[in-house]
Every structure is written in C-alpha cells, then in structure tokens.
Amino acid sequence: MKSFEYTVKDELGIHARPAGMLAKEAKKYESKITITKEGKTVDVTKLMMLMSLAVKCGQTVEIQVEGSDEEVAFEGMKAFFEANL
Amino acid sequence: MFNFFKKKQDNAFYLGAPVKGKAVDLKEVNDPTFSTGMLGQGVAIIPSEGKIYAPADGEIAMVFDTLHAVSMTADNGVEILVHIGLDTVELKGKGFEGHVKAGDKVKKGDLLLTVDLDAVKEAGYDTITPMLVCNTDDYAAVEGIFGKDVMPKDDVVSIKMK
C-alpha cells in the first residue's frame, strides 16, 4: 500500500467536474484507490460517495493506493492531484 | 426484487423530470463533463421554471453548499445527480435556494431547490440542467428520453436492470 497527503488548492474544491475526472482517472488502474478526509474513507471510483465528501479548498486528504499496479497508480494519482486540484 | 418499480413494460425503472422544460440529449450539453458521460448517463433539461423536484423516491445524499447541484440515492439504489446549469459552482450559491439537506427522505416530485433562472442567465451561465445516473455501470442500460417538453415527474430516463 502506498499513500500520500494532498492539500486541495482549487478554489472550488472537489465539485462535480473534478470528482468525475478523478473517478475516471482512478478507473484506469487495477489498484483500489481510496480517499480519506477527516477520518471518512471512500472509494474514489464511487462518484457519489466522492462528491459527498465535499472536499474544499485548503482541506487535506489522504489518498491510498493498493494493488498490483500501485506504483504506477500512485504516480498517476499524484500527478492528477497536482495538475487538477 | 424490483417488481415494485415495474412500470409500463420490461424491467425498466424511470426517473422523473426534475424540472419543467425541454428534455434534450445529454450529448447536446455544451460541457464535456456531461456530454461525454463522465459523470454517468442520463438526460438534460432546458428549464423553463426554476423549481427542481426529486426525480424518484429516495434519500438526499448531498446538497452542494453552493446549492447548484443535488445528489440522491433512490430507494432501489440508483444514484442520481441533478446539476443546475453549467459552471454554476462559480456562482457560490447566488440565485439558489435549498429546501432539503443530506439525509432527508424525499418522494418523487418533492421540491429540492429553487433557482432564479434569470439571475443565472444574467450572470452569463447556461441554465441547462443535466440529470445523471452516477452508478450507470451497475445497470444494463441507462437512456435518456428526450426531444419533448416535459413537466416535473414525466419519464425522462429509463434504467434497465442487469
């Protein structure tokens, strides 16, 4: 299992569009990818759960990646967050 | 198991229009987030009235604090997102009024949100309102029923169970 923390810089947080993009990105990988905010963890590919986390600008989330392709998934998710959020 | 929701023919479940207006193909929405089905399949309504109603019986999952979108889980597990307008997250709630909160049980046709369509248009935003099934992958087919004027609760999305 690999994980990283990320503090959201996007002023609007993880609203509908970024949630959709994030879920789509996560589906590219075999690994199970979860996101945790304030102790609540959801599967990143479960779009509605992801939106319900209501991650806002300035909040820190932890992304956990576990599975056969976790090295590449970890790098992919990290790059995604840095580029989009 | 889903016999309770059986209606018309086959094993389809129908979502009602969330707003009065014209139902159009999701592909016509001028935003790839919706038109490519990234958030799920469904339909879009060009609203003629600023009252947003529940498309099915279920529970409110989330009301965005900017009030421009609401998600709910129908009693049979269908996950629905109603998104009022495009890029309207940027309005930060201006022109929107919420009538429900996460966890509320709603019936099809209950009022969820009110939006001042003219104010949204004046601010320069498209008011087209996509309604999507976020867990589209869980179903055999999710299809919009469009090309007509609709009243709230009219069938606009058919969902075929696997």
* Most extensive interface, chain pair and sizes: A-B, 14 and 20 residues
Q: What structural category arises from helix and sheet content of chain B?
A: mainly beta
User: Biggest sheet of chain A, open or closed, and with what strands and sense?
Assistant: 4 strands, antiparallel
Point out poorly predicted stretches of chain A. Answer: none
How does the overall form of chain B come out from the CA principal axes? globular
What oligomeric state best describes the polypeptide chains here?
A: heterodimer
The number of distinct β-strands of chain B equals 14
What percent strand of chain B? Answer: 35-45%
Descriptive notes:
The complex is a heterodimer of chains A (85) and B (162). Chain A has 85 residues and is of the alpha+beta class. In chain A, 38% of the residues lie in helices and 27% in strands. Chain A is built from 3 helices and 4 strands, in the order βαββαβα. Chain A has helices spanning 16-26, 47-52, 70-84; strands spanning 2-7, 32-37, 40-43, 60-66. A 4-stranded antiparallel beta sheet of chain A has the order 1-4-2-3. In chain A, helix 1 (16-26) packs antiparallel against helix 3 (70-84). Chain A is globular and about 35 Å long. Chain B has 162 residues and is mostly beta strands. Helix content of chain B is 6%, strand content 40%. Chain B has 2 helices and 14 strands. Chain B has helices at 32-35, 117-122; strands spanning 12-16, 21-24, 41-47, 51-53, 58-63, 69-74, 79-83, 96-98, 105-106, 111-115, 129-133, 141-144, 148-150, 155-160. Chain B has an 8-stranded antiparallel beta sheet with strand order 9-5-6-7-11-3-2-13, with no helix packed on it. A 3-stranded antiparallel beta sheet of chain B has the order 1-14-12, with no helix packed on it. Chain B has a 3-stranded antiparallel beta sheet with strand order 4-10-8. In chain B, a hairpin with a 5-residue loop joins strand 5 (58-63) and strand 6. The N and C termini of chain B lie close together (12 Å). Chains A and B meet through helix 1 and helix 2 of A and strand 6 and strand 7 of B.
